[in-house]
Amino acid sequence: MDLGISRTPMREALVRLAGEGLLVRRTRRALLRGARARTREYFDCMRAREVIECEAIALAAPKISESDLDALAAEIEALNTGEHDELEHWHFDDKLHVMIAAASGNVVFPRLVEELRVNARLFRLHSPLHRKQENHDEHGEIVRALRARDPGAASSAMREHLRRLQDDVKRSIMGGE
Predict the structure, then answer these.
(1) Which residues of 51-72 are buried (b: 16+ CB within 10 A; e: fewer)?
(2) Distance from C-alpha of 78 to C-alpha of 11, rounded to nearest angstrom
(3) Average of per-residue pLDDT across 67-81
(4) Where are the alpha helices (DSSP H) in the chain?
(5) Cα angle: 44, vertex 120, 76; to 5 degrees
(6) Dihedral over Cα of 11, 14, 16, 19: its sign
(7) pLDDT, position 23
């Protein structure tokens, strides 16, 4: 198949995807295959996300701007009232979690959150989990806690959200979906 792309940009793209852990090289010269997150790695990533994101949101609660909170609330409302595909859901989900990490003031948190989310998403891409509405509801709780400028409530809302994601995976694995 001819994609109309020269070898150099294609090679650079494959190297970048491999560097981000999205592709795995079989051998030195063999084709790459998509990476898959193992169950243990998923839960380890989620535990790390819980530690980092709960700290990040507690730090962000007094700092995040009203305009950012308004924008997040408006997007949640739009997602709740209209039809949207999985990709739109994921884009908003990324935006919310990374925006909160950035608002913490810790320059490392956003990068860590992005990396951990990639690993968790690799697992979700290979699992039959669909909890868009639950995510929107939980994201709404997170935004409300941030709007109240309550670090404890915000941290609790984030922890609850991340644990519910893990519970959903556990139910799926155990066959109780």
Answers:
(1) ebbbbbbbbbbeebeeebbeeb
(2) 39
(3) 95
(4) 7-19, 39-60, 66-81, 86-103, 109-125, 132-147, 151-173
(5) 125
(6) negative
(7) 60
